[in-house]
Amino acid sequence: MYGWSAYSEVVSIQAARIPLVVQDLSSSVVDSIGEYRLDWSLADDQGSELLEQTLEIWSESQATWITQPLLQPSANSYQVEMSFLEHLDYGYVQG
Prior knowledge:
Radius of gyration: 21 Å
Strand content: 25-35%
Oligomer: single chain
C-alpha cells in the first residue's frame, strides 16, 4: 500500500558498547576445599549493562578452549575443582 500518512513517533536508540577487558586477574589455591580460585574486578561496562561473562581455559592436551559461561553477569570470582584441572595441560592467556 502506498500513500501519505501522519509521521511516526520519534524514537531514539543507543547502540551497545563492548565492555573493556578484565585487566587484574589473580589466582589462588583454596586448600581447604581443594579448588583453584580466579578473582578479578569487573571490567568497565562502557555504559551498557553486562549481560554475560565467559571464562575460557586453554587445554594444551586437547588444543582447544574449554568454555564456562558464568551464571551471574556481575560475578568477579570463579572456583574450579582441582580434579578438573588435573586432567588438563593448561595455559593462561591474557587478552
